[in-house]
Amino acid sequence: MTTDAAQQVLRSINTQEMTSLAEQLVRIPSFKTEETEIARFLESYLSDRGYEVQQQEVEPGRLQTIATLPGAGDGKSFMLNGHTDIDPLAMGWKRDPWTPSVEDDRIYGAGIRNMKAGIASMITAAEALRTSGVERRGDIVLACVVGELQGGVGTTYLCENGPLTDMAVIPEPHGANNVLTTHAGVVEFAVHIIGNSRHIVRKDEAVDALANMARAIPALNGVQFTHTPREDLPGLPRINVGAVIGGRGRDYDLRGPNWVSDFCTALVDVRFLPGMSSESVRTDIERVLDAIKTEDPNFQYEIEMPPDPKHRVFTRVMEPFDLPKDEYIVDAILRSFRSVTGREPEGFGTVLPGSYTGDDTTHLWRAGVPCLLYGPAGASESDTVPDEYVRIPDMEQVAQVLALTALDVTALPAS
Fold first, then answer.
1. First-last CA distance in the chain
2. What is the dihedral sign for C-alpha 308, 309, 311, 312?
3. Is the dihedral of CA 329, 414, 411, 47 positive or negative?
4. Residues 379-398: tens digit of each pLDDT
5. Cα–Cα dist 388/95, whole Å
6. pLDDT tens, 179-194?
7. Contact 183, 321 (CB under 8 A)
8. Under a CB-based contact definition with an 8 Å cutoff, are residues 32 and 88 in contact?
9. How many CB atoms lie within 10 A of CB 296?
């Protein structure tokens, strides 16, 4: 990568177009399982600019958009991967979340933080290479995937069906001055308690699933996980019982409060360390529940990992991710960061609290793609007003760093 080529690419970063794209993305609601409209928008947007675009049907009627900017064919390929699904909205917005607004150097709107700003930045980076006229040896792939908030549904599909690349960066919202190479494992699962329903007049003959869940929850919260502690991840492992529902039957019929509940489900999230696995987590959970069962044979449970999709939580496991620091992509993005900013990142490797989350790097890495995290952070206006925003200068810096990283990687010989 020559200095002239790098400067030519940086001059081609179009901040106005990047902001406009982010605004268009905000206007399209795209909650998990509801990403097809935004996939169709991105297919049109990228096709109009000369990308080779395919739409992958991850599930019936559920599309994601994969676009390729071809190189000469004799260089390494590079992926920018961003998820189009967004988090549920909190109450209390003082702006219309679906009408983006630019105020000072901030852009506000639903999903801008996680991660429509990142998608706009990564597309802007690719566009800078396309419009600069700088020759590329390797392909650049823009993967606009679904279902990261379900544990990586879209990237898992991508890993199984292609296209894959030699290296990748995911612009998750951890900050324009942070480069992350480590994150927690994430597994979500259901614990079902099975009881024996009886009418209230025969309650003494029943086994109350709700009462037994009340015994299970403290045991779950107190589980001692089998692990080797890490100083850089002092808050792991951790567990959270996030939701409970119970009633009659496996559909939780609530029409009979005069009957003892015979089925109760807790939805649980566990964040765990590199060196642990989802199976070791399950073994530890079973150990504490089996202890209750030993004391009380009427205590019956099932673990469903991952849970039924009807619960709309993670349907994939994100195993822990810990990229070796000697991978080329690490050096490439650090060089690009220094070129753009003239300094070192504020955070590198494990960056808290970002490294307590999970993301799609784990799936790419397991598919043989060295990758890491670098994207613009987002925030809300205050603790009491949930209006999301991202700073446009941070988006611009991320686009610049990603563009130079893509230029670096795709200049490498393919073999």
1. 18
2. positive
3. negative
4. 887 777 899 999 999 999 99
5. 10
6. 999 999 999 999 999 9
7. yes
8. no
9. 11
